[in-house]
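Appendix B, example 12.
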Amino acid sequence: MNKELTINGLDSINDAAQEFVKNMGDGKVFAFYGKMGAGKTTFIKAICESLGVDDTVTSPTFAIVNEYESDKLEYPIYHFDFYRIKKLEEVYDMGYEDYFYGGGVCFIEWPELIEDLLPEDTIRVEIKENTDGTRTVSF
C-alpha cells in the first residue's frame, strides 16, 4: 500500500509525523530518500518526537548514528546519516547488522549510499520538495 502525505510547512510537520507513525505498521527499517535540503532530518526529528523521544534529535552527520530512547516504545530508535560514508567497509565496521536486524527502529538518511546492505523489508520513504515549498512524503 502506498501512502502519501503533504507537509505544508513547519506548522504542519507534526501532524504529518503523527500520520506517518500511525502508518508505520510493523516496519523496522525506513530509508529516507530526498535531495539535500528536502527536509529528511526535520521530518525524522518530528517522527521521533511523535514516538515520544525527549532528547534533542539532531542529524548524525558526523557520528553516523544517533540512538534515542522513547517512553512509548520498548526498543531503541536509531537515526543514521550515511552522507559522509566513503566505503561500505565503514558500515560493516560499525556493525550495521546489529542495528538493522536488532529489533530497534532505524531511520536512514542517504540510504542510496548503502543500498546493497538494506534489509529486504526496508520501507522506502521519499521526500520531495514541491515548487510551492510544500513537501510530499511517499512511502
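The first strand starts at residue 4 and ends at 7. Residues 75 and 104 are 5 Å apart (CA to CA).
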